[in-house]
Amino acid sequence: MSASNTTTITSIGAPNRRNTELVMLLFAVAIPVFAYADAGLAKHGSVPAGLAEYGLGLGCIAGIAHLLVRKFAPYADPLMLPIATLLNGLGLVLIWRLDQEPSITTPQLGGPMAPKQLMWSALGVALFALVLVFLKDHRILQRYTYISMIVALALLISPIFFPAVYGARIWVTIPGVGSLQPGEFAKIVIAVFFAGYLMVKRDALALASRRFMGLYLPRGRDLGPILVIWALSLLILVFETDLGTSLLFFGLFVIMLYVATERTSWIVFGLLLSAGGAVMVGTTEAHVKVRVQEWLHPLALQDGGVTETAQSRYAFGSGGLFGSGLGEGYSRLIGGIAPKSDYILATVGEELGLAGVMAILLLYGLLIERGMRTALAARDPFGKLLAVGLSGGFALQVFVVAGGVTGLIPLTGMTMPFLAQGGSSVIANWALVALLLRISDTARRPAPSPAPSPDAEATQVVRSQ
Amino acid sequence: MNKPLRRVAVFCGLLVLALLVRVNYVQYVEAGQLSSDPHNRRVAINQFAQPRGDIIVDGKAVTGHTTTTGSDFKYKQTFTDGPMWAPVTGYASQAYSTSMLEGVEDKFLTGDDDRLFFNRTVDLLTGKQKQGGNVVTTLNAKAQAAAYNGLGKKKGAVVALDPRTGAILAMASTPSYDPGSFAGNSLTDEKNWNALQAKNDPDDPTLNRALRQTYPPGSTFKLVTAAAALQDGKVSDVNAATNSPDPYILPGTTTPLNNEGDIPCKNATLTTALKYSCNTVFGKLGADVGLDAMNKEAALFGFNKEQFVPVRSAASNFDTKMSPDQVAQSSIGQFDTTATPLQMAMVASAIANDGKLMQPYEVDKLVAPNLSTIAQTSPKEMSQPLSEENAKKLQSMMEAVVNSPGGTGGNAKISGVTVGGKTGTAQHGLNNKGLPYAWFVSYAKTDQGSPVAVAVVVEDASANRGDISGGGFAAPIAKSVMEAVLDK
User: Fold this and answer.
1) pLDDT tens digits for B96-140?
2) Which residues form the Penicillin binding protein A dimerisation domain (chain B) (predicted)?
3) How far lies B263's CA from each of A127, B269, B273, B281, in Å?
């Protein structure tokens, strides 16, 4: 490392912060439990019957995760697990609260979702545990660079063979299990591939270039991969009409390329290519066109009725500063299953108000920045790239979903991590957090104390800032 | 690798910041516009989230509420004697919005009015449910019943005013509808609503004929013509013979204007002419007074302007550009002249109130849920179409219509009370093929001035054409309304 100290802790006597994590976890469990009681009181006038089970369930999930971290990743960042638990717990409360609306909990729409979501959360924590227990060192993943590529491609392409749901072809239906969104898992696997690939190719990409008009133009053969990924993400978009995923992968790749090569020119290329792609697809693809129209005219009526976009905007508008209170809003007007999945942030906006939405966004922001900090602290380039890839992808996903729901950018079909209903999303994001914790544990682990020198002369330690 | 990493971290921070700015914009800047958007169902849900306030007549509520299940809306309005009060209350339907007083005073009834801010704050602090205010009307329940029952199955409308204040005492319109029949949003409500729409029911029951329908006023408009002649100085002695031919040839044409039946109209005095309702005398009088003076007088009575009582009424019409022959026809209430029943009640009440026209109103006061008065309507003078002296002359003419033998308004006579009136039979339709409208306007007078003026119109009453006349159909209704007010 360079002269500036980039590790977050010194190598001597580092506190592992596990007790801090435990205290914060208590809050992360208590807040959703209170929220659950509040929603029940508002909706039925009584504390929900399942409060104890729910509290215990969430407590167990958090407790087991905490013990595992204590045992297998003792130096990991103390903030990530509580934030993930809190977001997951609040998501469960919101889904349970929306389950209480008969109009959106019909059998045709799949009935109540909260129990399933709780089960998926438990499975997510199980995967979290598996990652922590069996992945002793994240650098092992380097070995699977090309296998990751194949897996990621397979995951991305698989939905093409299944029918489109709600206009987007992003689901894989497995009989007996339900539908999965492979894109959520592909996000992690592809980050592993990029990190491994770029670690090897970074010098070639960074140095073998010509200077042209102040920009470093990479050689054609080095430009190849980025063009391939760009084309691939466009293809995903066209065949699966999945604007969000293609944006996510492309953004992920550009960020990781930029970090690996330290060349601003990659950002410029990335922006130019994505702008070109967006304009092309935005003008030709009907599904995307509709989204753009709804973005430009959110309150316009369609077929004489109010669109989902408008309904979610109304929900935000009625929230005000503190919201109507859990269970006292009308997010059901959004209709279908949307309030539990795509538009769950609108329910937050209506029932918890501006304060609630800002709190949630700040939680996401904190989680992202802790991931970035992990990347900064990581000592190996693979770990750095993987951490920045995972947290950068997470950040893009949060931005694309929240920006879409609030009307900052056109809406794309992605899930709000941890908050929204959806098994793949919850499981994948728990695995993502586990990977980040693993990297951060390695990064923050104190260096082994030097072996005692045989010529035992005291050495003066000079520390530079 | 750390320099680009820091930049990426800052970039991600900016993404989150952009989201924070955006939600602030949506939930703070746009919130007002979004939460009042007419397509936002929350607006309607909020409207029925708590019991609405009541509309009160004679100390008793004519509206109420009941809770409903199975929809977004918690409370539903109920209506006591719905069809009778419908022209006053209007409807407040979960599915079909609001009208009349329920519509005009909607914010007050739901409790959202700014004037209830203090009450709302107190309720908020004491944890009470938000409550709507009550609207206390000026209506007289007995007069309303007399008007509504008097009209019965016939199509028509009645408006009664207190000439001294302008307070509306009765406002009936038939055929009517029950606003309670579609107050909810069930399929039955939808069916009932659809059945009432003009396209499905030619009688158009939801039309408020008292305020919103304009009719040719027929001979009742001769009161305005007489007032214009008196004010303009064309006539000063109402018992002096006029210079009127019979038939009267409309100026600039060869078309004769005839009288209905064999009545003594040639050179008749104004009193006689009004008593027998002479078209020739008043047609000529209107032409003599001229367009400008006629228009000025009509405007003083309230023509050509919508009235807000506070529910809006349609504007009555007296054309401002006409040739002399058209002025003559308009002056006997034909041609383009139209008037709402409210307008003709205003004409009668201005005459009865010695020339002063009071602003008509139907809301006496708005009271908060804790019964404190939030707003009180004080009677306001709208205009003075007649001098007191001329008003008294016109009163004597109208009283002659009712009292003297051969007068057309004999059916409105009430023993022991001075009653003045004027009949009207307005022809309409192409070549006057439609059944005529029967009009009667009148007032009653006691020692304390005139407590009531009434206008009655009956559309195509199901009787022989020849029998239809204001005196025959409309006057008895006016009489019973006046009796109800006088407590006879």
Assistant:
1) 888 999 989 988 998 888 888 888 788 777 777 778 899 999 999
2) 52-135
3) 106, 13, 9, 12
Distances in Å between the Cα of B453 and the Cα atoms of B150, B339, B342, B457 are 16, 16, 10, 14
Q: Tell me which of B23 and B434 has the higher pLDDT.
A: B23
B219, B244, B331, B480: the catalytic one is B219
Distance from CA of B19 to the nearest CA of A (A): 6
Q: SS3 sequence, B310-369? A: CCEECCCECCCCCCHHHHHHHCCCCCCCEECHHHHHHHHHHHHCCCCEECCECEEEEECC
- CB neighbourhood size of B3 (10 A): 11
Nearest partner of B383 among B444, B304, B321, B330, judged by Cα: B304
User: B118 CB contacts (<8 Å, ≥6 apart)?
Assistant: none
Contact A357 B27 (CB under 8 A): yes
What residue ranges of chain A have pLDDT lower than 70? 1-14, 165-169, 175-178, 209, 211-218, 222-223, 225-226, 237, 448-461, 464-465
| Residue ranges, CATH 3.40.710.10, chain B | 218-363+381-486
- For residue A107, the model assigns a pLDDT of 82
Taking CB atoms and an 8 Å cutoff, what residues of chain B touch A403?
18-19, 22
- Chain segment A165-190, per-residue pLDDT in tens: 666 667 777 766 667 788 889 889 98
CATH of B44-125, one of 3.40.30.120, 1.20.120.430, 3.40.50.1580, 3.90.1310.10: 3.90.1310.10
C-beta atoms of A354 and B20 within 8 A: no
The yes-or-no answer on residue B219 being catalytic is yes
Tell me if chain B has a CB within 8 Å of the CB of A9. Answer: no
Of B15, B19, B27, the CB nearest to A317: B27
Domain ranges of chain A: 17-444
Note every long-range contact of A13-18, with CB atoms under 8 Å and residues 24 or more positions apart, other chains counting. Answer: A13/A446, A14/A75, A14/A444, A14/A446, A16/A74, A16/A75, A17/A75, A17/A77, A17/A78, A18/A66, A18/A69, A18/A70, A18/A74, A18/A78
Q: Which of A272, A268, A146, A145 is nearest to A209 (CA)?
A: A268
Any B CB within 8 A of A372 CB: yes
**CATH pick for B218-363+381-486 out of 3.40.710.10, 3.40.50.10380, 3.30.70.1400, 3.30.70.660:** 3.40.710.10
Beta-carbon neighbour count of residue A247 at 10 Å? 23
Q: Answer whether A323's CB lies under 8 Å from A356's CB.
A: yes
Q: Which of residues 287-326 of A touch B (CB under 8 A)?
A: 299, 301, 306, 310, 313-314, 316-321
What is the pairing mode between strands B437-446 and B418-426? antiparallel
Query: How close does chain A come to B95, measured CA to CA in Å?
Result: 15
**pLDDT score, position B465:** 47
A388 at B interface, C-beta within 8 A: yes
Show the beta-strand stretches assigned E in B326-480. 357-358, 363-367, 373-376, 381-383, 418-426, 437-446, 449-459
Q: What are phi and psi of B97, to 5 degrees?
A: 65, -155
Q: Taking Cα atoms as reference points, which of A446, A465, A442, A448 lies closest to residue A374? A: A442
CATH 3.90.1310.10 positions along chain B are 44-125
Of the candidates B8, B30, B37, the beta carbon closest to that of A392 is on B8
CA–CA separation, B257 vs A172, rounded Å? 89
The answer to whether B19 contacts A317, with C-beta atoms less than 8 Å apart, is no
Least confident of A129-143, A415-429, B57-71, B305-319: B57-71
**CA-based nearest distance A354→chain B, Å:** 6
Radius of gyration of chain B from Cα atoms?
Answer: 28
